[in-house]
Write a structure and sequence with these properties.
With about 220 residues, this protein is α/β, with parallel strands linked by helices. Helices cover about 45% and strands about 15% of the residues. It has a single domain, classed as P-loop containing nucleotide triphosphate hydrolases (Rossmann fold). It has a five-stranded parallel sheet with strand order 2-3-1-4-8, sandwiched between helices. It has a three-stranded antiparallel sheet with strand order 6-5-7. Strand 5 and strand 6 form a beta hairpin. The longest helix is centred in the last third of the chain and has 15 residues. The structure holds BIS(adenosine)-5'-pentaphosphate. The site of BIS(adenosine)-5'-pentaphosphate has 37 residues, from helix 1, helix 2, helix 3, helix 6 and strand 6.
Amino acid sequence: MNIIIFGPPGAGKGTQSSCLVEKKKMYQLSTGDLLRVELKSDSNLSKKLKEIMDSGKLVSDDIINNLIEKKISEPSIKNNIIFDGFPRNIDQAKSLDTMLKKYGQIISLVINLKVDNSILVKRISGRVSCSFCKKPFNEFFDPPRDPSECSNKECINRDLIKRSDDNENTVSNRLKIYEDSTLPLLNFYESKGVVKNVDAMKSINEVTKQINCIIDDL
Ligand code: AP5
């Protein structure tokens, strides 16, 4: 089964995708994470990407669709993908349909994480993540636990990383772009009958429970 985790910046898409990876052994395909790997190289592309991402704008569809097709074509993750942060506009959604068809796959479920904007700003400004396992924490809502509690032993030497686009100016741009370009996608998927809404204002564990119930009921 392929799933899209849908929602505004800070809704918990990455957090809930990590839970699905752990509990359901699915593959998390996060376009944000793929782009941040690209940022670490010293190429002209990475400088351009940094500028776009730090401003909160969307990276071009061509770059994103290329990254996505490379992954969708991998037989080892066929029909077991969580799309986190993709698609972000109607053209990306149509390209995704075309790519999935080419590789004999479909989207079975779109999980729509619903959170008020006032909470999103705090979730984003408080976010830090482990430099090794990438697990996100939050200085306000989910403080980083002792690294010795992590199942990954390397995390004992972790740094806590803050993203350069997690500041108030960029956040308001990201929210505006979400409302203008990404939110209209819900109609696209509602017409296919695959959207399930989740109250993502609740605690991380409660949100995970709602998602697990939806998946188990399918
Ligand atoms: P991306 O990395 O995808 O960022 P985003 O969509 O803005 O989403 P976030 O990662 O900020 O939030 P999230 O929903 O994953 O929340 P998280 O689980 O971390 O994209 C970054 C940039 O890359 C974009 O701006 C764009 O430039 C580019 N890009 C990416 N994809 C693209 C695409 N397809 N097309 C074009 N450009 C693209 O949680 C946030 C915080 O809240 C954490 O601290 C967490 O611990 C906490 N938290 C989570 N859930 C809860 C809860 N239930 N209660 C309390 N705290 C919670």
